[in-house]
Design goal:
Elements lengths: L1 E2 L2 H12 L4 E4 L4 E6 L3 H11 L8 E3 L3 H4 L7 H10 L4 E6 L16 E5 L4 H10 L3 E2 L14 H8 L5 E4 L10 E6 L2 E6 L5 H8 L26 E3 L10 E4 L9 E2 L6 H16 L4 E4 L8 H12 L3
Parallel strand pairs: 1-8, 2-8, 4-6, 5-9, 11-14, 12-13, 12-14
Antiparallel strand pairs: 2-3, 3-7, 4-7, 5-6, 9-10
Length: 309
């Protein structure tokens, strides 16, 4: 691991231009980055994570102008980008025919998932590399996402050429992913931008059709999963379980996502606390978390973590 100072960012950018893999912090989680125009480099992401090739990647750019070289913005998509970029919002948009992005990032789709991160290290790295970066979460596929540099080292080890350490990620859950069915906006994955904030701009969000193909990252039914068994909406721990609490009435909780019931604090703590409990317990009981605001993203991750594997 390297502290993410100017020298380390310059070295990381050189590695990326050479087709290597670099893990770096974003405001959501740590990403496993590769030059999104280099097919071999992007293939190395799938190999390092053991990620299914049907699961598309998010391409990270500096902003709307750069994204416009690769995707076609609708009026609604541009309004969302203007409101929430840089930040934890991903837009799934039609691919431009002349984009240099490798087809691997799209997993065979005619759309590309793109976002502009707000983390200063991520932005400096994209700028220094001079190329868009494909970057899913920097962990083995299906496991708990990394919110600290040491989580990346524990999960991927020597499968990554450099890990830039920018401290704990402030948001702690992945980006919200929005797609479009014609003019109809779709919630493809809840995340760091709450549904309510998006709906103020584009109106009510629809759900994608069930049973259809994967159209964006984060749609696998089992994902973000610890080794331990998980039981959700628990009021107390049963024999053999440890309790992950939420709120002031979390008596007996081994850890508490937020004692004051703050959903932003809970989101930031979620993956790190799941990792900590997973290291010591065979089963984790999780107290209820409200479905409002960031609670939708938290519950989405918990439901996928608890899904049959």
């Amino acid at each position: 691991m390297r502290e993410a100072d100017a020298a380390a960012i310059a070295e990381a950018a050189a590695l990326l231009r050479d087709g290597r893999l670099v893990a770096f912090p974003t405001e959501t989680v740590y990403g496993l980055g590769a030059d999104a125009t280099n097919g071999n480099a992007v293939a190395a992401i799938f190999a390092a994570k053991q990620r299914p090739r049907i699961n598309p990647l998010i391409v990270h750019v500096t902003g709307i102008a750069e994204a416009g070289q690769h995707v076609v913005f609708s009026e609604a998509a541009r309004c969302l980008a203007e409101a929430f970029w840089p930040g934890p919002l991903t837009l799934v948009l039609p691919r431009r025919a002349d984009t240099p992005l490798t087809l691997l990032v799209s997993a065979g789709l005619e759309t590309i998932a793109v976002r502009a991160p707000s983390h200063p290290v991520a932005r400096a790295l994209i700028t220094a590399t001079g190329r868009p970066l494909a970057a899913p979460s920097a962990n083995p596929s299906g496991t708990v996402s990394p919110t600290r540099a040491r989580h990346v080292a524990e999960g991927l080890g020597n499968r990554v050429d450099m890990i830039l350490d920018g401290g704990a990620t402030p948001v702690g859950v992945e980006s919200t992913v929005i797609g479009f069915d014609g003019d109809r906006p779709l919630m493809l994955r809840p995340g760091g931008v709450p549904r309510e904030a998006i709906e103020k701009i584009v109106g009510l969000l629809s759900a994608p059709e069930t049973g259809g193909p994967i159209t964006s990252p984060g749609q696998l039914s089992s994902h973000y999963a610890p080794r331990a068994r998980m039981r959700l909406n628990a009021l107390r721990a049963e024999t053999g379980e440890v309790l992950l609490g939420f709120g002031a009435k979390a008596e007996g909780a081994a850890l508490n996502l937020s004692a004051r019931g703050d959903l932003a604090e809970a989101a930031a703590n979620l993956f790190a606390m799941l990792r900590a409990l997973d290291a010591e317990a065979e089963a984790i009981a999780v107290m209820p978390v409200p479905m409002t605001g960031l609670g939708e993203a938290i519950n989405d991750r918990l439901q996928r973590a608890a899904a049959p594997r």
